[in-house]
Design a protein that fits this description.
The chain is of the alpha+beta class and 222 residues long. Helix content is 34%, strand content 28%.
């Protein structure tokens, strides 16, 4: 009936149709999974921060999202910004490469303080510290001490015993780091940085103790 009817009897034709259907399904599945992860993570942040205003912005289609949270004026924390980026779940062909290169989804939270912070300090998981992008800029001038936090090995970087004790206090009060991988206190920027591997339903539980602990880093008024 049609010029190319013979293609219907070719196995490769049906293989092509099946592969196309799987890729299309994979796109919508990946899009849905990434959106679920984004909503879970950002709703968890909102529950902890309780902002007076918030703005969410999409980054590059399905790459990720950026959130800007404005806090109350009486809070020691001026603002919070968060960026979540995803593995390429929407592309089943590229997903294995994405996992190989990026390894996991990422959630970066930047907390800007109203008052200056006195000292630099870091809590960083040893495995994560081995990644190329997890270098500590001022590592050479900081003291270093290995610790166990939960079931994993971590390192504490600090300028003085006071900062070391503050960081360890967090690990004692919050015994399971969960999805946390790096907490950084950077005084010259008046900021704290928190890096997590976001998982649905876990962001709030792991971020809340850190967010409640951060104001204790502000030096008492003289």
């Amino acid at each position: 009936m049609f010029e190319h009817d013979y293609l219907i009897s070719e196995p490769l034709f049906w293989l092509f149709i099946a592969a196309t259907a799987v890729l299309v399904w994979g796109y919508y599945w990946g899009e849905k999974e990434n959106k679920r992860l984004y909503l879970s993570a950002f709703n968890g942040l909102v529950d902890v921060i309780k902002p007076v205003d918030q703005t969410f912005t999409n980054i590059g289609g399905l790459i990720g999202y950026h959130g800007h949270f404005v806090t109350r004026k009486d809070s020691p924390i001026e603002k919070v910004e968060a960026t979540i980026t995803f593995l390429a779940r929407q592309s089943l062909l590229y997903l294995p490469v994405s996992i190989l290169i990026r390894k996991h989804d990422r959630l970066f939270v930047t907390i800007t303080m109203r008052q200056p912070l006195k000292e630099e300090g870091h809590l960083i998981e040893e495995k994560y510290a081995g990644y190329r992008r997890a270098r500590i800029t001022n590592e050479a001038r900081l003291n270093r001490e290995p610790i166990r936090w939960g079931d994993s090995s971590w390192c504490v970087y600090y300028e003085s015993g006071r900062m070391r004790d503050q960081l360890k206090k967090l690990t004692v009060s919050h015994t399971n780091p969960g999805i946390l991988r790096h907490i950084a206190v950077v005084p010259d920027q008046k900021k704290c940085f928190v890096f997590m591997i976001p998982k649905k339903g876990q962001v709030k539980a792991c971020f809340e103790p850190v967010y409640r602990w951060i104001p204790s880093l502000v030096p008492p008024a003289k």
